[in-house]
Design brief:
The protein is mostly helical. It contains 4 helices and 4 strands; from the N terminus they run E-E-H-E-H-H-H-E. Helix 1 runs antiparallel to helix 4 and helix 3 packs antiparallel against helix 4. One of its GO terms (molecular function) is transferase activity.
Length: 175
């Protein structure tokens, strides 16, 4: 009877700086064991590569935390970083500028809508004012379009960063 050598299926070594070998799924044979650290790194990279697996509310779809061989769902704890941490991380000044731009656009939309309301409420309006009202409606539409695209860009960048910086801890081994 041959004995199974206990080595990590990811890094192919037996011991790795005190990192324990675990059997986190129902795979058998040479694919049974993996270092906890190797598995957590692999899951984090997989989640970053398939960032659609991490939703905006911080939950992970089941596909992200399953064994690709036996389809066993790992028991994991996920910790992601906040939006403020994203904004105030080094080299994130571009996203901070986007947030300031969004605040400016929201303010402009508010001002344009206020002047538009004032122009429509006034009963004694000269004819040329209707052209100004039309321009204000166009300005509001323009601001809302830019706001939509900018928020979409910012959320996309945040989700990508959040998936790549998530910390995963494998909790329970199958019995």
């Amino acid at each position: 009877m041959a004995t199974t050598v206990r080595e990590c299926r990811i890094c192919h070594t037996g011991r790795c700086d005190g990192d324990e070998l675990i059997a986190p799924c129902v795979c058998a044979g040479s694919l049974r064991y993996v270092h906890r650290g190797c598995l957590q790194t692999w899951l984090r990279r997989r989640m970053a590569r398939e960032r659609s697996l991490l939703s905006a509310v911080g939950t992970v779809h089941a596909k992200a935390l399953t064994c690709e061989i036996c389809r066993f769902s790992y028991k994991c704890s996920l910790r992601t970083l906040s939006f403020l941490r994203f904004l105030f991380t080094r080299s994130r000044w571009y996203e901070l500028l986007h947030l300031l731009y969004i605040a400016f656009i929201v303010r402009r939309i508010h001002v344009q809508c206020q002047t538009l309301k004032d122009a429509l409420v006034d009963q004694h309006v000269p004819r040329f004012v209707y052209m100004r009202v039309l321009l204000k409606v166009f300005a509001v539409f323009h601001y809302v379009m830019f706001l939509t695209f900018d928020i979409k860009y910012l959320v996309h960048a945040w989700l990508k960063w959040r998936a790549s910086t998530a910390q995963i801890l494998v909790l329970v081994e199958p019995s």
